[in-house]
Amino acid sequence: MKRRILMAAGLTTGVGLFMPGRSQAQATLNLYSARHYNTDEALYGNFADLSGIKINRIDAEPDPLVERLRVEGDKSPCDVLITTDAGRIERARQMGLLQPVNSAVLTKSVPAHLRDPGNNWFGFSKRARVIFFNKEKLQASTAPQNYEDLADPKWKGKLLIRSSGHIYNQSLVGSLIAALGPEKTETWAKGVAANLARPSRGGDTDQIKGVAAGEAEICVANTYYYVNLMRSKKSEDREIAAKVGVVFPNQANRGTHVNISGGAVAKYAPNKEAAVKFLEYLVSPAAQKYFAEGNSEYPVVAGVELSPQLKSLGTFKEDQLNARVFAQNNAEALKIMDRAGWK
Fold first, then answer.
1. CB within 10 Å: which end of the chain, N or C, has fewer?
2. Are residues 198 and 272 in the same domain?
3. Same domain for 43 and 83?
4. Does the predicted model carry a pTM greater than 0.70?
5. What is the mean pLDDT of residues 225-231?
């Protein structure tokens, strides 16, 4: 498990390594983070400057971080858990690792469908899962318009999507279970598996690159991977993005599936007051702008300025299904995809 050691940087950014048993007069916040984006350094540093609270951070991949929190139990120093995908943070809630937060700031700022109904966790950034198409072979009007269309036999050998084992797809399929029911979703998943241009491999960026290279005509990926290609300093990345177009699915009905990067107060947080202040800071205009500019994610708070590239994708209708619902469907979604032959 990697740790990011920033003792020297802590003098200017307010971020330092947590050292159990160390005496600290300064107010502190112990953060467990599964986000690994460079601009998050500025995000945390800005909070330290504004609040005078020093952040002691441990970074790790999402699943090991939740497991660490579980193993530590009531001895855990963690105040705040931040992770990607509602499925992961909901899993932490189900394991009894989080506590509800009573904050008018959070409930007012975070839309109801992007937070736990019991206020155990809150979304702070959004990532839409959309359909991309090869501009040489298709137009926006001839590409699939709905997730359901991806199972149409007309796309046989023309579709790319990452593996069923990845939580992004489990959450997407979890939303389809809520919309269509398990039986229709399994029929759909079989169609998706039959339409693959090749066995699933790689991440979302690999699917976009495959479509740009003509390996397939369409793919499914999160918007921020595409926008990061658009914003890349490498000309070859920008050229890839230029060859690919975007369709926001299901605009005529329930809207596009949107997932989150979210945060929560740990059940045994030793610095709960600081933890709540930090979560409230994450919905401030300054923090929301870091999310929008740093990793090309959509802010959850309305009215925050987007990067020109993200703004160029246009506005879209998003599915209002509560994130806890599709997150709770993850396990069933994986079983459905396994039975469908989606590896």
1. N
2. no
3. yes
4. yes
5. 96
